Amino acid sequence: DQYYADYNTYPERLCADSGYYSLDNYRYMVAAGIENYIKPQTWQKMICGEWMELYHFDENKNLICLNGKVAVKCQNGNTHSRGRETVFYHIENCRRCKFKPYCMKTVKDKNRQDRFFEVCYDLYAFRKQAIENLLSPKGIEMRINRSAQVEGVFGVIKQDMDYERVRRKGLENVSCECMLVCLGYNIRKLFTLLSGKGKIDYWIAPDGLEAESPRVINMERIIKKLRRKEAAAKHQVLQQPLLLDCYGGVLSCSRKVFRRTLLRLRTVVHALSPASEKLPDNGAISPPAGLAGVRVACRRLLDKTVFLWYIYRE
User: Fold this and answer.
1) Rounded to two decimals, what is the model's pTM?
2) Closest CA to 289 of 263, 314, 261, 257
3) Nearest alpha-carbon partner for 87 in 54, 66, 68, 63
């Protein structure tokens, strides 16, 4: 709106960072006739070959997952809606899907055998159009000039002009201060151009430049990496000590807290544990070979009705 108020027209195209990625901005650009070059939030990972869309839509607006299954619309995905104008899609029987580790990495329950997607079709279409524009030769031209010109201005103001924070309070005062800083930058740029030391470069894409293609994602490597992380997390959980009360509730999962509690108790009920499972003097537990776990029962000094068990898992 401010651009239109100053120049009485809208720009032909707009290239912006992923911070401006929203459904409202996309619709505003369409209404104003501005070409969409706003990066989606997953742009960097997509270019590096670390991310792939979990679904796509066919010509009939049916959602199809990575495994080729057609999703079914449903009322809700057993949760509340997190976006506007979104629709829930349900895919069943994901047990033998080869993409399950990658598809379920954002799902809390990793053992579930189905998948819900909450999708806004308009936002998906705008994002797809933005990606196609950014990968085109004109998109490459705009991305290069934006990174060289826009980001360079902030670097000069912060580093060369030593301006890293505002020194006034209030919206009007801060706006006035920022405009003065920008005015000083423009005057400095003007004198640089008049002296012949500065120049205004706008890189123009050559005629034979082809559209950019994102790096092909290696799904097998990513799935193996996710499975290794999952196995390492499970192994770490199994190695953690558990401090339980007599009802089975977890009081603590910290080895340090557990040993401190044992030292404070100063009492071990030897009658409840075999001789091979007694706690050593230094507070460490050395499980005998061949045993899956060692149980040491301890009784509080003040309350003798509560027992604590330390379960050590190999």
Assistant:
1) 0.66
2) 314
3) 63
